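INFO batch 0412 | record 1 of 1 | parsing
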Amino acid sequence: MKIGIRVIVTTFLLSFLGISGVKALHIIGGDVVYKCLSRDTIKKEVTYEITFTMYRDSKSNGAQFDDPANFGIYRGSGNSWSWVNTISGIRVKDITDIDIQNNNPCILVPVNVGVQSGKYVFTIKLPIINESYMIAFQRCCRNTTILNLVGPGDTGAAFTTEITPESQRTCNNSPTFNDFPPVVICVNRPINFDHSASDIDGDSLVYEFCSPLTAGGTDGATTPGSPTSCTGVTPDPRTCQPPFDEVTFRAPTFTFDKPMGGDPVVAINRATGLIVGSPNVLGQYVVGVCVKEYRNGKLIGTLRRDFQFNVTTCEVAVQADLQASLKDGTEYTINSCGNFSLDFVNLSTDVKYIQNYYWEFDIKGEKKTFNTRNVSVTFPGLGSYTGTMILNKDIPGLAECSDTATITVNLYPSIKTDFSFAYDTCIAGPVTFKDLSTSGAGPIQKWFWKFDAEGNSSGQNPIFVFEKPGVKPVRLIAEDVNKCRDTIIRNVNYFPVPALIIIEPNTFTGCKPASITFDNLSSPVDDSYKFEWNFGDGNNGDEFSPTHVFEETGLYTIQLKLISPIGCETTKTWPNLIKIVPSPTAGFTFTPEEPNLINNTVQFTDISQDAVSFLWAFDSLGISLLQNPSYTFRDTGTFKIQQIVLHESGCTDTAEAIIPIYPLIRFFMPNAFTPNNDGLNDVFIPVGTIEGVKNYSFTVWNRWGDMVFNTEDFQTGWNGTRNNNGDTAPPGVYGYLVEYTDPLGVKKTVKGHCTLLR
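INFO prediction complete | emitting tokens
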């Protein structure tokens, strides 16, 4: 029998081939429901409104909703189905962001999870037959991060609805789900989601987990191919027909009826659709729910939905916390030593989720309550008291929003920390400290000393030697049997003079003139002290570690007086510490003063004083031990010459000079020439040695100031024509100008006159 189907839609498209499969990973889930609009008993036709609801991951950078989309219509049952028609050009509408809140405003969920829903709605008119109709949408792919499926990134989805013969004859309406499952589930927290559906026909509904269906694949997803093949991103409904495969679960850990595992296992109530359990493994899970529709005990249809649960770590937005001496979970201990009026500082978070505060203290059997964030309480005396602080007390429906802190207050006797110290203020040595601390609870148990930044001690009466002078803040923390503590800081003005003054060098013999740095190693001293140096040559200094130049030979006695900031002083003398011996004076001359490659032998003449031996270094070319050596330079360049002379005392001195050796520039200009091509004196050109010059220019000018010749090539001369173009210049007197830069970088100019004869 031939079946005709009318499809009533707003927009018609002939094909869906333009949909790209790039970034296809996006499918969260979906479901299909139908509503019977009318039944024509004469024509034996029934009209349905079909609603496909699709869900996509809006935070995965995956594909958008297919717009438009294709849907296939098939007839048959079980494993035997045949294609009837393809519904093309259906546009997506009502795209909505799903609220990912888990129905508890005090549970904070991650912000990187997002779900969008979109609807495809169209109307079809079907002949009433004795077979079922199936309406299906096929699409790849699901998220690669799904934990309970094998190969989730290559697994697509098929969303179907089956309209049975009984549904056709009775103009039945499918059930519809009342709500969409929570997108985010907190790990190790119980699920309690009502996944029930409603049926306007009053049919009986039975709920169960079932296996989601898969269709399509990744062909054409990232490279040109066939995205409409049955293994493509958008399978062609005509050629890709039911039955559709079921997804493959990672058994035995996960199966269709235990899709998330859990402890207790996540399950669905067959009668109510309530999903309960406690997932204990982080991840993403695909879950399928089937709602079987019974009428008079007979199965007349099945509503299918699959969706993705995201099990993640959630934070409780409300947490009780307060400033305390000791924290152990939700138990807080506050110790006070000598103070009976206490301020309780509330650190609870997050304030925007806290609607009320409740404090309760038991004070000698009497309960005192407060309702502010921070409270101040005065207790009657020594002892131990208890209390509680409750956030969001007795707020209906928000049990997770409440948190409680249990408080123990211990009021102890007061403690007073004190100490004294003694030391010789002018002589560097130890400082003796004596503990004077007291406590109403009995003897002091522990001491914590800190001597500026130089050391510590846990003794009761320590002795400490400071390495450096200064105002030393000394801190003592005393602790009693109740662990009550008190702190005191006292300054010790520690400015003694050292018992021993030490300097370097402790002996020195140097060559005249000698620059000597005296390194002051005395301790304890610093720049706050006054220093009076006597260098034994009539000069003095006041620096911590001075540098002094001894200009004359002889023996010198050094003296240093130290004066501390509080007036303590000490003096040390070092007899004949410094010995200065004579030094020679290096010096030399050389000829010629401007050597070149022609005149390249240089004679060096010693003019040093008080020298007994000599060492000459001619750059890296050679050396000589003669007093007056000579050296022949074989190449051009700039050379450093050193003369090192030695005094009989062993002292040395050095003199240096830089000698340039350049090519020789020597030429003259003829005063006449005869350009008659007889091979004699035909060209006017500089004659001589000119190699090595730079920026060379040679020009010739007539008596009217016109330039008749110019060149920058020193091997090119004037042949008597105007600018060498063949026009003969008349006989007469012409001016010339030669300009160049010599190898020393000096600009040179040569000018004069020549006579052109013909």
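INFO post-check: Residues 171 and 739 are 113 Å apart (CA to CA).
INFO record closed
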